[in-house]
Amino acid sequence: MPGATAPVERLSSLERAELLGRLRWDVIQGGSLFLTYPQLLDGAAFAALRPAALLDELAVRAIGGGAVLPIRVNSRDADLAGQLIAMLSTGFLFSSLPIADEQCLRLQRELAVRADGEAAVAALAAEGPVGLADRLLAQTGVLDDSLRRRTVARWRDWLEAAERGLLEVSPLVPADYATAYALRPPPRPEVAATDEGRAVLAAWTGGELDVNGLPNRSRLYESLDPLLRSGDPAAQADAQTLREAFDETYYRAIAAGEGCLLGLTSPRRGVRRREAAALVEQTPVVIYPTRFELRLGLLSGAQWQRYTDDAADALGNWWHHRDLTALQEVGDLLAERTKEPPAGGVHEVPVTRLQRFVRSARGVTTQTVAGGGMSLATSLLGQGMPGAFVAGAGGALAPVVVAAVSAGVSRLTDFRGRYDVIELPGATEGGPDGD
């Protein structure tokens, strides 16, 4: 999913280890990684990674015998090749290419001018998806030949992986905005400091930015662009706040529709620290070794396989039962197998905070989990737990347990790291406010 992904063409060994470590941590959290088709086909992270290498570096023998990637991607009619051609033949904005934003916009305009979905469908059978993708890109004249060939080769690798069954491709499911808004409504007007910000918020919540009855992120971004370019700090702050709020809603709606855990960076770090600190008495803390994501990324493919083989029982208990003791076992084994990586310039403490919500007085049941996720690309994780998000949720939801994964700290008030959010669909019976 595009999110805050920066364009990537080549990764250094450290950057690759950092990215691989985040992917492995996502797999540990959810059992598998779910991607929307733009995350894969226009994802900077997956432009720099190849499925053949990832099969050794990310696959877990406890999942599919290690013969498949723990990755699922959605696509219209479960046809990844057709989805790519649809993107190229309708003027999609490819935002993660290693070119300037102006060139990305120019490519979008050139693709839109030439957009002809019917002709593309007819040519697909004759030219094949790779040949047709190459021709559609070449006709725009925007990318140089070398970059175009590398981009098409990247797509070919992933299309072939899907065709060979190395990753799962599932039919596209409509985003569930009703549940997304119920779990976290849009900001209130008083959150915006400027008239311009309140106007965009009103357009969003009033349906003026909808396409086919659903909120449209591109339209919202276009509406916020003048605020970002205005030079007014208050307007720019409003634009950032609304963009983050909409992204959270957008990803939550997709996760609710797909029945996945949701991984997304929270901009409200201080609030989450205070919330966690207030619940410290009922908070079991699971301690992981310092810089555990990088430790995971520095494992070779063979070391990763041995590690996950030995942690298989604990991983299964965590994935299927959310057993925190099992999650601690996974972290303890990582500490035994790895050493502190060389010091770097980043001193963040990745934190996973799990917060369970139970049945409220109004009879609504839902469950939320917060935790560390990817920073190069917002991620949707795993298949979730039994149950589903409840559409139209309302009333106060009571927090009953919080858990954290930290880098060597023992009190929630000590945390100074980022707080990312994942959400776990599922139903619980009873609880402090249960019926």
Keywords:
six-stranded mixed β-sheet; globular; 12 strands; 17 helices; 435 residues; 47% helix; alpha/beta
Topology:
Layout: H1 13-30, E1 33-35, H2 37-41, H3 44-47, H4 51-57, E2 71-75, H5 80-88, H6 101-113, H7 117-140, H8 145-163, E3 168-171, H9 177-183, H10 195-205, E4 210-211, E5 214-215, H11 217-228, H12 233-258, E6 261-265, H13 269-278, E7 285-288, H14 292-298, H15 301-310, H16 312-321, H17 324-337, E8 352-358, E9 368-369, E10 379-381, E11 398-407, E12 420-421
Parallel strand pairs: 1-2, 2-3, 7-11
Antiparallel strand pairs: 1-10, 4-5, 6-10, 6-12, 8-9, 8-11
Helix pairs in contact: 1-14, 5-7, 7-8, 9-12, 10-11, 10-12, 11-12, 16-17
Structural write-up:
It is a single chain. This protein is an alpha/beta fold and 435 residues long. It contains 17 helices and twelve strands. The strands form three sheets. The protein has a six-stranded mixed beta sheet, sandwiched between helices. Helix 1 crosses helix 14 (292-298) and helix 7 packs across helix 8 (145-163). The longest helix has 26 residues, at 233-258. The protein is globular.
